[in-house]
Amino acid sequence: MGFDNLVFGKKDAHQLLEEYGSPLYVYDEVTLRQRCREMRSLLSYPRFRVNYSAKANTNVELLKIIGSEDLDVDGMSPGEMHLEMMAGFPADRITFIGNNVSLDEFRYAVERGIAVSVDSISQLKTLGEVNRGGSVCLRINPGIGAGHHAKVVTGGKKAKFGIAVEDLPKAQEAAAQYQMTITGLNQHIGSLFLEPDAYVEAAAFILATAASLTSVEMVDLGGGFGIPYRHGIEPRLDLARLGTMLDDLIKDWVARNRPLLVRTEPGRYVVAECGALLGTVTAVKENYHTYFVGTDIGFNTLVRPAMYDSYHEISVAPGNERPYAEYDKPVFVVGNICESGDILVHDRVIPCCQEGDALIVHDAGAYGFAMASTYNSRPLPAEVLITAEGEVRLIRRAQTLKDLWW
Ligand code: LLP
To answer: Which of 71, 125, 216, 289 gives the lowest tally of CB atoms within 10 Å of its CB?
Structure first.
């Protein structure tokens, strides 16, 4: 770290903030395309598709790029499906993977020809009301989970997601009641793994489950592919090793069973690293021997550190000419929200900051803007894309005060 030479295409952080306002989300097209390609080539198994899990970031311009890289998408709500269709995804490249959704939400998907996955027998019956005679995927809960924080572990006996495997016979009965065919199984055990083992174990489990359900033509192994938020400390996920382990499993399964379409559902891996969040140092102080760097990046703009104690690397672009120096002890970087939990960086040694410096929060492309809110009545920030040619393009305008009411 240090006063990195942080250039965003042809501009620097200060120029971008001046032009588009602070804070500001910035995305890099080249990195986004690269991550898409890495995911697309995870398996050598030919009948393999990637569903980008759009909850991580639904900016329509990013979705268009992701679509152009031959990824399909998941939608979690009519809102996500709507944005995906705006980005040009046809219905047959979208899967609605809902959780506790309403009859109307199922109808929205069915009327448009979007495949639906349900995650309880109760939801299966609700879907049956609008999809009699159609097909359905079941989200199973394999009874194992994984993730970077208890709040993102989505498999396991205490998680709210999925159908317990022992209930599958009941799910089959319910599907039969509505003449629905169970054509797919999916699962997602949790978010952010950097070692392949738990994912491969869960993949083996869902494949074993699919073996006896002969109508199943598609198995979706889930998302959760992690990225190294701690630069230079955490290793990158070894995709080559993971891919080989999965390929072996799948090829063996297909040889012993029947043809199968295999999907994965990455969210974070696709978009996290292409995004940075820029902001401005608005105040600095030392209170009772603790340094606080105050910024306009509150948890309304990036909630991950406050919600999950998540770590993001942070760089400082000084607003004036001065020699480089670091704080002599760890500091807190805090936002402009009226809550003491509004902490962006906990107890970390960073470069000394002054009012007017720009801050760059790295790897903010996933679950950044997507989870932003207008808490404390702060309008949502703008988003810009640095194109492959290095140009800056506004891809969502900042909200104004007028947008805060009706
Ligand atoms: N599929 C399903 C059914 C999911 O629920 C999720 C994420 C994904 C795929 C994509 O997971 P990913 O590849 O991004 O790990 N807000 C949290 C993460 C919550 C993930 C929720 N489900 C965070 O900021 O870390």
So the answer is: 289
Cβ 225 under 6 angstroms from ligand 1: yes
Q: Tell me, what DSSP letter sits at residue 191?
A: S
CATH number of the structural domain spanning residue 157: 3.20.20.10
- Tell me how far the alpha carbon of residue 191 lies from the centroid of ligand 1, in angstroms: 5
CB 188 less than 6 A from any atom of ligand 1: yes
Active site residue 338: yes
Name the DSSP letter for residue 190: B
Query: Number of structural domains, the chain?
Result: 2
Answer whether 339's CB lies under 8 Å from 375's CB.
no
Residues 74 and 127 in one domain: yes
Tell me the residue type at 304: R
Q: Is the dihedral of CA 44, 45, 49, 52 positive or negative?
A: negative
156 and 220 in a single domain? The answer is yes
CB-neighbour burial class of residue 280 (10 A; exposed 0-12, middle 13-18, buried 19+): buried
What is the position in ligand 1's atom list of the atom closest to the CA of 266?
13
Successive 10-residue mean pLDDT values, the chain, 406 residues = 63 96 97 97 98 98 98 98 98 97 98 97 98 97 80 79 94 98 95 94 96 97 96 96 98 98 98 97 97 98 97 96 96 98 97 97 97 98 96 97 97
- pTM listed for this prediction: 0.97
The CATH number of the domain holding residue 369 is: 2.40.37.10
